[in-house]
From TrEMBL:
Database matches in InterPro entries: AAA+_ATPase (IPR003593), ABC_transporter-like_ATP-bd (IPR003439), ABC_transporter-like_CS (IPR017871), ABC_transporter_ATP-bind (IPR050166), P-loop_NTPase (IPR027417)
Signal peptide positions (record): none
UniProt entry keywords in alphabetical sequence: ATP-binding, Nucleotide-binding, Transport
TM region(s), chain numbering: none
Organism: Paenibacillus contaminans
Pfam families reported for this sequence: ABC_tran
Keyword check for Nucleotide-binding: yes
PANTHER family: ALIPHATIC SULFONATES IMPORT ATP-BINDING PROTEIN SSUB, TAURINE IMPORT ATP-BINDING PROTEIN-RELATED
Identification of the protein by name: ABC transporter ATP-binding protein
Length: 258
């Protein structure tokens, strides 16, 4: 957990729109260590998705440094896995073919890796099922397995459990932590759910909007498995909530013109 895998320095992003410039990210500095689980939380529009897309190489029009294993990110690649809010599976392909994507299951190495991933995301027995036969949580587990196929250096997840009901969501959080503990893949997980952010993270990055900037970085030193009802968990929750209230106060001051 000591080597930096991702180094973001003085990152700025402005969207030019017909209505003018939108300063989406302002002076983001963040270094993430190998194997770390980072959650990014903040109100809607504070730049969470923009930040993730830039790290993924899906948007290369920005100012500043974004280095993965010391190399500037210039485009998408197999060293970065991405999971969106919706699973985005191919409806005409089975679970195993969705995971293998463009690789052939006839290749023994691919076959072995896909089988390992199916076991890891707890979909044994569903290899030959089609996406329409899966629940939302199962489909999202396929999406996670697909993103892990090429052992990415970092897995980027943009509100991946946002469309799931509370029980499925809690189960998915357990599954993801299990995957992380077995694989030690570096994770950057965007959410707007405080419980989720505290439950999963080694560090929580709190963003504030207009322009999107880092408001605070909160380390979470609670041991795993975490209990959401424990006092220490609730204390951390309050710490994060407190930062949000400060953001709201700043917004009120802004809008009142003080
Ligand atoms: P979040 O994911 O935190 O809700 P986003 O990263 O989607 O926020 O958006 C951050 C800001 O950038 C918002 O003000 C949004 O309107 C703006 N934005 C995002 N994408 C674009 C785009 N393609 N063109 C113009 N503005 C955009
Ligand atoms: Mg978003």
């Amino acid at each position: 957990m000591s080597t930096p895998v991702l180094e973001i320095g003085k990152l700025n992003k402005t969207f030019l729109t017909s209505k003018g410039a939108v300063h989406a990210l302002h002076q983001i500095d963040l270094t993430i260590k190998e194997g770390e689980f980072i959650t990014v939380i903040g109100p809607s529009g504070c730049g969470k998705s923009t930040l993730l897309k830039i790290v993924a190489g899906l948007d290369n029009r920005f100012d500043g440094d974004v280095k993965l294993s010391g190399k500037q990110v210039t485009g998408p690649g197999i060293d970065k896995g991405f999971v969106f809010q919706e699973p985005r599976l191919f409806p005409w392909l089975t679970v195993e073919k969705n995971i293998a994507a463009d690789l052939s299951l006839r290749n023994p190495q691919v076959r072995q890796k896909v089988d390992e991933l199916i076991e890891l995301v707890r979909l044994t027995g569903f290899e030959k099922s089609y996406p329409r036969e899966l629940s939302g949580g199962m489909a999202q587990r396929v999406a996670i397995a697909r993103a892990l196929l090429r052992n990415p250096k970092v897995l980027l997840l943009d509100e991946p459990f946002g469309a799931l009901d509370a029980f499925t969501r809690a189960h998915m959080q357990e599954v993801l932590l299990d995957i992380w503990q077995k694989n030690r893949t570096t994770m950057i997980f965007v959410t707007h759910d405080i419980d989720e952010a505290v439950f999963l993270a080694n560090r929580i990055v709190i963003l504030k909007p207009r322009p999107g900037a880092i408001r605070a970085v909160v380390p979470v030193d609670l041991p795993f498995p975490r209990k959401k009802a424990s006092t220490s968990f609730q204390q951390l929750r309050y710490t994060v909530l407190n930062e949000f209230e400060k953001i709201e106060e700043l917004e009120l001051i802004d809008s009142s013109g003080i």
